[in-house]
Amino acid sequence: MLTKQQLEEFWAEAGKIYLNHISIDCVVFGFHEGQMKVLMLKSNNEDAWYLPGGFVRKQEPIDNAADRILKERTGIDEIFLQQFHVFGDPDRSKIHNEMYKDMLPEEKNFFGQRFISIGYYALVDFFNVNPTPDVFSEVCTWRDLNDLPKFQLDHELIFKTALDTLRLQLNYQPIGYNLMPREFTMPELQKLYETILDTKLDRRNFQRRMLGFGILNKLETTRKGGAHKAPYLYSFDLENYQAALKEGLKSGW
Amino acid sequence: MLTKQQLEEFWAEAGKIYLNHISIDCVVFGFHEGQMKVLMLKSNNEDAWYLPGGFVRKQEPIDNAADRILKERTGIDEIFLQQFHVFGDPDRSKIHNEMYKDMLPEEKNFFGQRFISIGYYALVDFFNVNPTPDVFSEVCTWRDLNDLPKFQLDHELIFKTALDTLRLQLNYQPIGYNLMPREFTMPELQKLYETILDTKLDRRNFQRRMLGFGILNKLETTRKGGAHKAPYLYSFDLENYQAALKEGLKSGW
DNA sequence: GATACATGGTGTAATTGGTACACAATTGTA
DNA sequence: TACAATTGTGTACCAATTACACCATGTATC
Questions:
Q1: Which residues of chain B does A58 touch, with a Cβ-Cβ cutoff of 8 Å?
Q2: D strand bases under 7 Å from protein CB
Q3: Helices B155-169 and B186-197, packing angle to 10 deg
Q4: How far is B88 from chain A (nearest CA, A)?
Q5: Gap between the Cα atoms of B246 and A137, Å rounded
């Protein structure tokens, strides 16, 4: 929650540069140690968790707005972003509307208005991200999909819709490419698929099928260090991957 | 194009009741005589064709806004509607912005502002629709997908994005159910699939596969009148259809 | 009313693709 | 050096899709 002074300062700026009524919320997915993660923010002095978000400048394309917002939260310049849904319930920001209602007169109260929020999901390489809080938050951090906090506003709906979208687009978007580091092992990639699809896959069939798509380069090296047989490393063949996605990876998962 | 007086009248109303910056555009699909159709509007005194659209009331959920807009254009109450994309280029309505720029002072010029448009696609039973122009148009009519006029603004992009979405969602949304009349023949349904997928399908395999899904009821009657063997009529088993869609119709087309 | 013809309905063999396993190879550790 | 755990590869089986052939039926033509 903002103090009255913070709210006034924010308004002095925001009221001039942003479009009214429109916000952007982002579901940023990362993958680390076999676990799917989402980037989240914790409000100042509250145990209230949000998705990273922001507003659209008056003459800014909405995709650029999402880019700009996420660059501030992650430090990454060219992020893989997909718009996936608009959340337009008039009561969706009611809590905020009322929280700040009495602090400022209506015409100066940026958070008093209704916001229609455009949902984007982002896929990033976990190691490239430098999580950075915004002016409303004191913490910006990865949260494990198995250990999520309670979301504020309708952000749980936004998150779940993003995950559903990811599942549906798995055969049509370069999801693996954007979530995995440049080099990875087959079991790691399988773990990603299992997390997104929320199911167990047969290790051997997964490998054969993945290789069958012809979108992976098998590298010479293996990943040593585990207590067992060292798996081979792979990287994506981006050209083949994108060509294959155009048709959709055959007959899905 | 509106006259200055019309513009002023529209503003007097619109400025009070609608959210700024936000519009809705709808791609309404119908299917008639083996052909896919889109509902379009022609501007007053111009050969300029648009998709039906409108604005969002200040306290109205966006889905309701789309419903309301389409009820006015079609007469249908409960329309199958799916939000599919947001079009947020700041220049997308430039032509309108400039067309009306000098007619009214900026603060009274509803069409002078930037609009971010939420795209909906609608699926309707062709025979239920009563096409009705709005205040900006003199014609509201079905246009064949093979004989489309030049679109105004970015409405061609909106239309194409809707058609792409339809193709991707064919196995996940009750598209057949909403586009076909209550009773239909197998060749008719096949034509719909061929149109959406833009491909030829084998008549015999299509039939077997469709029936294999268990989502159709074969009726006693046949469609007489054609110059050849009378095909059986079918209707959708809505319950089974929706259950099947939850999983996605197995392994797509 | 017999026949031609175009279209709809049903069946089947061949191929492809997916599933469920078995088994060998490799790594670090006891 | 043997062992446990994990990875890499192969194969037999089953299901689904494809590519056809053939039969049925309604209308038009003579």
A1: 90, 114
A2: 4-11, 16-21, 24-28
A3: 120
A4: 5
A5: 38
Report the SS3 class of residue B54. Answer: strand
pLDDT tens string for chain A (253 positions)? 777 888 788 888 888 899 999 999 999 999 998 889 999 999 988 899 999 999 999 999 999 999 999 999 999 999 999 999 999 999 998 888 787 777 777 777 788 889 999 999 999 999 999 999 998 899 999 999 989 999 998 999 999 999 999 998 998 898 999 999 999 999 999 999 999 999 999 999 999 999 989 899 999 877 777 778 889 999 999 999 998 888 777 655 5
B199 touches chain A (CB under 8 A): no
Q: Tally A–B CB contacts below 8 A.
A: 59
pTM over 0.90, yes/no: yes
